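ENTRY TYPE: paired fold submission
RECORD: A
CONTENT: sequence, then structure tokens
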Amino acid sequence: MTDAYKLFLTKTYTHLDAFVESLGKLLACPITIENKHHHLLAYSEHGEGTDSARISTIIGRKVPDNLIHRFWKDGVMTALNQSAEPLLIAGIEEFGLGKRVALSIRDGSNGVIGYIWISETTRTLTVFEQQWLKKVAVKVSTYFSMYDREQLAPTKEEKLWKVMTNTYSPTDLPASLMDQTNEKCMLMIDLHRKTEHLMKVEQLLQPLAPLYMFDGRYFIALVAHASIADPLKTIQTAMPSNLSIACGNPDRSLEGMAKSYEQAKEMLSLKNRFKEELNSLLFYYQAGAMRYVGPYEEKAYVSSKHPAIEQLKRYDQQNQTNLLKTLDEYLKNDSHLVTTAKALHIHTNSLQYRIKRITEITNIRLKDPNERTGLYLDLRGEH
């Protein structure tokens, strides 16, 4: 370790601002220190290469909410909270963020009390400097005693992100959320970056949602109720029809909310793709076989789709028939003749003739559940 780096660690500073200013000069990089709730505590002079994300943080005395949301989505905050190692962060151009090295600041019990952010807009830190910063993080923790750590309480957004990433502490959350007698799930509503429906959505969800946020496009909420399905169905009915709403699977434990959040995201994606089949559904488990379309398509890419699909496509083109659509409706309606005939606006006798013709052309075995399910999934990939 060079003398300058050794000296920095042994020197005493009168306050955190002096500490940060000295560190910024030593590394020749802009430095920012914030508490665990992302409120700004100290920063070094800008120097050259300061980016707009840092300027916004300094002006607002807090990291912008949209950037905090992005850090949680990208796993940055989870990584910092789970490890004392330096984390290399790529620039995010849309937020005006240049490259960063970040570390968590911890107290004597290894709890996170803040973060150090080093901007690499003018130079890249060496591996030695990255590892040396772990000693800096230990030293800077002693200056946090000058600040009331709990003066600025965590926001609802921060609490919710910690629940969604399963990094929460029970002391961070309302005691009611730890109660396992209520069902809980994560809910997402795609507002398409429009805020005109936000007030109505908040009014509908507030009685059920102790934690919620709007991240610029999605309204995300942790909802809880003794029996969650009925009140959420009522809310879904009251929602504007152009909004898409989805929920992860219910769970009585808070630990299940990280998985429920991933399921809610996937359900939104499925509802966007399979609008006709899933529009009226709410929970991830209700998507049924649609949940497996993605993994199935990856495997089908290698093994190819059922040849019956191409056979019927060719037959329909040559004979101006609708046998492929007939097969699709028949499988969607669980092989129910009357329901399928109504959907196609034909007589059941006509449907029976079409089904017979389909099996003659393709040799498919519609009584075989494995082949029937495979065909159903292959046809979903045609949408």
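RECORD: B
CONTENT: sequence, then structure tokens
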Amino acid sequence: MIGLIKKNKEIIMYLIFGVLTTVVNILTYAFSTRILDINEYISNIIAWVLSVLFAYVTNRKYVFDSKAESKSAKVKEMLSFYACRLVTFGIDMALMYVMIDLIKTDDMIAKVIVNFVIIVINYIFSKLIIFKNKEVRSEK
């Protein structure tokens, strides 16, 4: 059992922090729409900004164990992370529009469904693009 956990540590950690990122996203969205009475799309932007910041810090440190050490390597990594997240944010906004405005799904149900789709896409981007060379140390 321990061997299975060690073998799949990255995926397990991604799922844990993916769930926590989703909680940050959904709670921020709910607070913005329900308490502050902010439009769904503006609330989605606010939720995205806060959850991406949380995701970057946790993914870098706990999930993919980034080895980027130099300032330039860290900046490149962060820009790559945010660029990929901007792509999935576009997907997020498009899916929210389709589900809320076209299909007439409750916005909170749409938010939860869309978050699961985005988690999968973000993992693929993180694994294949952002943190792909985690063993390679950058020059200082």
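NOTES ON RECORD B: Residues 100 and 107 are 6 Å apart (CA to CA). The chain has a mean pLDDT of 85.
STATUS: closed
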